[in-house]
Amino acid sequence: MILHEVETFDRIEMEALQLERLKKVVHTVYEKVPFYREQFEKNEVSPKSFQSLKDLSRLPFTTKEDLRIHYPFGLFAVDQSELVRVHASSGTSGKPTVVGYTEKDIDMWSEIVARAISIAGGKPGELLHNAYGYGLFTGGLGLHYGSERLGMTTVPVSGGNMSRQITLIEDFNPTVICGTPSYILSLAEKLEEQGKDPRSTSIKYGVFGAEPWSDKMRKTLEAKLDIKACDIYGLSEIIGPGVAMECHESQDGLHIAEDHFLVEVINPNTLEPLPPGQEGELVFTSLTKEAFPIIRYRTGDIASISYEPCECGRTTVKMSRVKGRVDDMLIIRGVNVFPSEVEHFLLTMKEISPHYQLHLKRKGSLDSVELQVEMSEKYFHEIGGNADDEKVFLLGKQIQELMKSSCLVSMDVKVHIPKSLPRSEGKAVRVVDLREVVKKDIRT
């Protein structure tokens, strides 16, 4: 086990380091980023007034909309000539959010991700199979540079082409695999389709993230692949993957790289701070970035934090697994529910595969949800391969009752045959909003 000294700092040492770095970053953004200078002056705050970490609360939050308004480079703290790389979000809901890195930023990010991979069980000299997508998405290159920094042999497979993925896994014998959990699950199923046992590969550890996933999904992946599946967290706006990492020893919360990122948890409605252990929206301030420092960024991710000791020996604050996103939360007839909650309870049923979608529809003036699931291969064969069997109807009713009692939401349920729902080539699409389609059809 590799333990970096900073990961074992006591609380006094860590907060002293954070304050020292916070003072530098607030001076930087005040001097070099007009947006932040305006925020400081509007709130009558001077960089010199920062004498404790609590002083940060005197500044307003930064939001994704702020990044879009200043698209593409308006929030950068360095001249474009100093950048060595830019990344960006997909921009599916508007202008993409663009982030930049200096040479020092890339070096620092690589070190952060190297630490993360080692926390998950990776070791120098071993081989890492990287199935995250490469390109503007930070996942692929982020894990790639971190793996190389740790001293691992890195296979930059990217996503897609599962047959090639399987061939390389069989021939190269990696010990670590990285990717979205939904994609790795599809990869395991592809192995089974080929008559191979996913548990027989050389893989020991999985570094999975980029989408919310439940503990039930973790157990499914671990059982199918005979691995330790660990959660990695990050956002492009903060730096990319590596902001926090779950240790393979306890798998009970993700260790935040506190020497580089200062975390807060707020009530997303009132914006008031929340104490450790209480779920709310994660807010991050970067402490060491040169090109794109960010102050009190509202992530939209729902989680809690804990300062409890960890059996791995690290003393850094831990965040819980992300329950969901503020904007992914479904409000159906006054009831709040996250897709990850549906997944958690759905995967308790052996008759159902881990693939599902939530279709949002409109019934009259009210929103409704149709849960699309598919039978497991084993159950489908048990009922003789008959999708019209009365047992399938009763299974749908059983799922309805489970969702009603567990998530407190009434859902229509449609049970499909195995392998009929879309498979992930990257981030899984769990929610399909058909309400807008209906509106357009009506107008037409």
UniProtKB/TrEMBL annotation:
Top-level taxon of the source organism: Bacteria
Residue span(s) of domain AMP-dependent ligase C-terminal: 334-435
GO MF annotation terms: phenylacetate-CoA ligase activity
Keyword Heme in annotation: no
Pathway(s) this gene product operates in, as recorded in its UniProt entry: Aromatic compound metabolism; phenylacetate degradation
Primary enzyme class: ligase
Coiled-coil region list: none
Domain called AMP-dependent synthetase/ligase: residue spans: 52-285
Keywords, sorted A to Z: Ligase, Nucleotide-binding
The EC number(s) this enzyme carries: 6.2.1.30
Reaction(s) the record says it catalyses: 2-phenylacetate + ATP + CoA = phenylacetyl-CoA + AMP + diphosphate
SUPFAM superfamilies listed in its UniProt record: Acetyl-CoA synthetase-like
Its job: Catalyzes the activation of phenylacetic acid (PA) to phenylacetyl-CoA (PA-CoA).
PANTHER family: PHENYLACETATE-COENZYME A LIGASE
Family affiliation: Belongs to the phenylacetyl-CoA ligase family.
Protein name: Phenylacetate-coenzyme A ligase
Organism: Rossellomorea pakistanensis
